[in-house]
Give the backbone structure.
Amino acid sequence: MRSFAGRDILSLKDFERQEFFRVFDVADELKPIADNRHNSDLCADKTLVTAFYQPSTRTRLAHEAAMHRLGGHVTGFSDAKMTRAGDFYQESIKDTVKMLEFYGDVIVMRHFQQGAPQEAAKWSSIPIINGGDGWGEHPTQILSDLYTVYREKGRLDGLRWLAVGDMRMRTMHSLGYALTQFDCPVTFVGPPEMSLPEEYKKEFESYSLDFSEAEHVEQAIADADVILVEPVVQPDYTKSRDERSGDVNLTPANYKITRELLTKKAKSDAILLHSLPRMDEIPADVDITKWSRYWQEAYSGVIMRMALIALVLGKME
Ligand code: CP
C-alpha cells in the first residue's frame, strides 16, 4: 500500500480498497481523543492552512477542529475576498499557493473551479487536501460518509446504496469512485436536468461500478441499506458565492425522503446520510427517527479529518 505521508488528497479516483481501510483504522485509533473532548499533542509542531474560496460550515471547521484535537495550529482564510486572490489582483492559484506553502505544513482548499486543488498541488511542496472543487469532487466528505457506514454496519461490502439529489454534485462523483472499491450496488435518483454527467458515467462503467438510475426514490428505497441525500435546490457551485434572492423552489417528491416514506418503504435498519446543508429534501421530523445518521456523519467528519491530517503529515503510518 502507498504511504500517505506527503500525499495530496484530491480525489477518490484510484483510492485503493486497502487505503480506505487504513484510513478507517487510523480514524478508530484517534477517535478516543475526540470522544473524550481532549486535544492531544500529535501534531503540536505542525500547522494547517485553510484556503476557502467558497462558503463552508462543516468542511473548514471540521478540518480546523481536527487539527486542534491533534494539538496543531491553524491559519488561513474563509473568504478569498479578503485576500489578493479575491480582489483587484485576482492572484493566481500558483502565486497564492507559493505563499501558503511557507505558512504551514498542509493546505485544505475549497474552490469554485473544478480542478483548482489539482492545480495547487502542482505547485505546492506541502500536501493539498481537496475540500470541494466546483462540481468536481469532495473526497473528505465521502470518506467521512463511508466511515460512518462502516462503524454503523461493521462492513461496506454487500450494502446497497441509494443516492438521491443533484448528480452534478461533487459528493456524488467521489461516492461513485469510492464504491468502485466495494461490493456496493448503487442507484442514483436525480432530476433529468441534473443527471450524472456522461464523463462520470463512462468512468464508473470503466471501473465496473454496479450502478443504475431511477426516476423516483419510491422505486429504490425499499432495497437500500444506505440512503445518501443531497439537495436538488441549491446554489451554483461554479460561483464563489451564490446569494439567495427571493423564494426558492420546493423539492419534488421524487427526491424527498420523508418520515412517511421511510416508515412505509425503507428497511428497518437502513441508515440515512446527508452531508448538509439541507433544504427541504429531508424534513426536520426525520431527525429523530431510527434511520437518521447525519449528526453522526458530521462527527465522523471531524474524526476522519484527524486521520487524514495525521496520515499526510506522516504522524501515523
Ligand atoms: N458537507 C459540506 O461540505 O458542508 P459545508 O459546505 O458546510 O462545508
Remarks:
- The pocket of phosphoric acid mono(formamide)ester is lined by residues 56-59, 132, 141, 275-277 (CB under 6 Å).
